Amino acid sequence: ALCFLLLVAVLAVFSPRVPLCVHSSYTSTLSYQQNWAAFNGSLFQVSSEKKSWQQSRQDCLQKGADLMIINSRGEQNFVNQLKMCLWIGLTDSETEGTWKWVDGTRMTTSYWNSGEPNGGRNENCGEIKTYDSEKSWNDESCSNEKFWICEKRVSP
């Protein structure tokens, strides 16, 4: 059943013609419109190509969004279901070891993989590596090219 839900989620993200609503134990409603997935008051879009962290962020900004900020277990579970390595909006490029989100707030909730972050000055950008563990964050070189996930906050 989980594989089917993952397949439906991936197809819905990449196919604008598939109108779906999926209900799960940790979400209220997950729906898809124009390649954007709605979850907990935000819209999310996964890229179909790979870029550096900064280029990925620029793409999100051009869409009126930014790289995803993860502040809850629900958001972590939401992105984990994609089973992809994705840039998220987390960086310590301003001050080594002080991880901040793209909106300038400090990271308060974290889901670092075991032994992470470990990259020092060479790995200043956050990615989600969605293996079988909830603890899936990794610090990575910002120049590496990866897929990314944009988040557009919806006004209440």
TrEMBL record:
Q: Does the keyword Magnesium apply?
A: no
Name the Pfam families for this protein.
Answer: Lectin_C (PF00059)
Query: InterPro entries recorded for this chain?
Result: C-type_lectin-like, C-type_lectin-like/link_sf, C-type_lectin/snaclec_domain, C-type_lectin_CS, CD209-like_CTLD, CTDL_fold
Single annotated GO MF: carbohydrate binding
Keywords recorded for this protein, A-Z: Disulfide bond, Lectin, Signal
- The protein's superkingdom reads Eukaryota
Gene3D superfamilies assigned to the protein according to its UniProt record, in alphabetical order: Mannose-Binding Protein A, subunit A
Leader sequence residues? 1-20
The protein, known as: C-type lectin domain-containing protein
